[in-house]
Write the structure tokens for this entry.
Amino acid sequence: MDRHLRLNRRGWASRLALWSAPALFIAVLFYLPLGSILIRGLNSNTLSVLATPEVQAAIWFTLVQAIASVLLALLIGVPLAYLVYRRRFFGASVLRNFLVIPFVLPTIIVVIALQPIRILPAPIAIVIANLFLNLSLVIRIVGSVWRTIDFNLDDAAALDGASTFTTITRVHLPMLRHAISSAAALVFLYCATSFGIVLVFGSPKFQSIETETYFALNQRLDFNTASALAIVQTLITLIAFGLSSRQAEPAIEIETRVARRAPALAAILASGFLIAFFVIPLAAILLRGLNANALANLSTLGSRGLLDISVWQAIGNSLRNAAIAAVIATTLGSLVARLCAGRGWLQSLWLLPLGVSSVMLGFGYLVSFGSGPLPLRSSWMVIPLVQAILATPLVVRQVAAAYAGIPADLAEAAANAGAGSWQIWRHIEAPLIATAIRNSAAFALLVSLGEFGAASLLSFGDQATLPVVLYRLISRPGEQNYSMAMAAAALLILLVFAVVALSSTRIRIRRRRAPSAL
Amino acid sequence: MTNSISRKFSRAAALMATIAIGAISLTGCASKPTHEITVVVHDSVVVSKSLLNDFYKQTGITVDLIKAGDVGTMTNKLVLTKDSPIADAVYGIDNTFAGVAYANKLIDGSLTAIDFGDVCLNYDKTWFSTHEQKVPTSIDDLTKPEFSGLTVLENPNDSSTGLAFLAATVARFGANGWQSYWNALKNNNVKIDSGWEDAYYTDFSGSSGKGAYPIVLSYSSSPADEVRADGQSQTAAVLSGCYRQTEYAGVLAGSSHRADAAKFVQFLLSDEVQQAIPEAMYMYPIVTSTKLPERWAQFAPAAKLPLGGNLDVNANRATWLKAWTAIFG
């Protein structure tokens, strides 16, 4: 099946060279720091640490809030996926485009946008914030598969006397099983590892594994607890991860005919909900933040010199870091996706960072790269590198999915016609995966732009990133800090909009060209 | 064909390797030119630009201040990074964390006391007079029914102010009695905030946030900052049951600019810095002959008999926090 992906046997030297970059990258910058922090904390006490009430509370709370968030996201997301993707109504396509945004927003923005819900009990506020980040993921994953289910099936069911509801539950849902379980597992994964949301909304009573790790290390220098928690978190996420990788068959878009019009009331309710839930909180930040006064404050250091650098400098740091991280993650991630095509287990070596606490990784860097042969910690490169590690799995997943979607017979035909591997890559594979690479580059950029856990540990002084500065500003009440936080948040939102807009315009051009390339 | 692939990809791999090596070698040149030092401080430390300029004029040493979180976070970061320190000197480690610094051999020589503050309850005088209620006079009052739901405190896990108060309660009620005091506080609907800023600026009724709680855990100096148009402070401190926090500066053991760093520590004891400390940081200068601002003399006297000076906070922190978290967790 993956014959066309295999390189010629004589190319073993080049293969070695190809493997060495991503292998060294992940080994030195991920497994080494992670291993060193685990070794430091793993000893005979580890098991007894797991039995302490705080640790158990953190584990339970992590699971409970993540499961609650998944259930709520499915409950709301699946019906919305049906309406927005399977039915037709005024504004549906605008909504579909907009739904890309919430999932890629930095957590710190979600925290700021949802400040009013802090009056709610912490667990509820946390679940709502999780929903804000992940609802669109469910809608998009489930919706995009739902869209491809043949409309003739609906007609056949209707002829047999089935109502729309029966058709959905009896015909569609079984076909959507994989999409739904994969979406659920992904949402679980993101909720179980979220740091910023629990840090802000949960404090002081509710800690997750991630925040408890942070406090254990940051406040108590308690490596035992941190390592034990990291192991538990890794196990939990590995399981969720295994579930999420059993993806649905790659969907091929066949829109044989126009979707049916949605009932007006349902369409109004759906758009009303999505606008109220997503658009209003973001618009509120933009309205408050984008005024001359607030923007002028961005060049100050906050009231009583709270910041080490101005917000503008932090934006500069963030842009530089995100660009470097995105280039590294996209290059190496795409390479890994190609090298590991058909070897899923090997690929997961590069996917693991997705399931490991970024806080833990940050501490691993503090411990491993302080001095010695690789004194990375004192370099500004440390943040783009750790962000590249965290973004690589996302690239690998997207690009690998695109590779899996390439029809094998296409390459076989080309090989039979005498095309070499390079030609096959250049003329068949590359055009087909180009969109995935571009999308994942944009995604890597956005993830790095919003990354908070590792940056909050590793950025010192003039290296603070925008999310770190934002967190400091919102942790310090006061008029000036508040208006600065709003202005900085507004700029970050605009930045996200710009990246999403740029990447999706390109995709549209590519799509239009794609048929002729084939 | 194969050759062309391998060349193309080897080139890509070589490029990546170059980037990696470049990244690593960049880290090699992080050391500073001779007369420039980095001083790590906690988030509430303020040393003005003009003071740093004066220091430069006197010594030719440029100072780069970096803020590294609250006292606990800052100290722990110094421990985690002591192999290649993030700074040459530290200012703001207090007596609750000095033990961590010494135990981890962070400091070259010993720490020098620079300033101190008394962690005391504050109350909103206006609130108590409009509600015609008796004001609290000691930390014992907080558990009385008439003060139910009026107090906001800070989480000792996250806040050095909160930890200081926890130490004060241990000193006041004894190693076996303080838990029942906190249980009583919990039953009396005390609010726990994560940090001092949240408690003081958001939830306290007597400051800018105009919150719902007329009693807050703050400092004996805070009333000096709440003087209203009539020349009177809206708030007052309860001077019984306070815990004294002393803040220190020191040269970091791993620094390669120890002589310059030591000059900066000495500079912190100079008259101009000591005089600036009250207004900039709401702490009292450690040099007792320093003249206090007028409002301080009037509204912000230090506590006469602070509690807990004899406690080993460092040795007991974990036990206390565990027991406290069991009550409030």
User: Anything to note?
Assistant: The first strand of chain B starts at residue 36 and ends at 41. The first helix of chain B runs from residue 2 to 28. The beta strands of chain B are 36-41, 62-67, 89-94, 107-124, 151-154, 191-193, 215-219, 235-252, 284-285. Chain B touches chain A through 65 residues (CB under 8 Å).
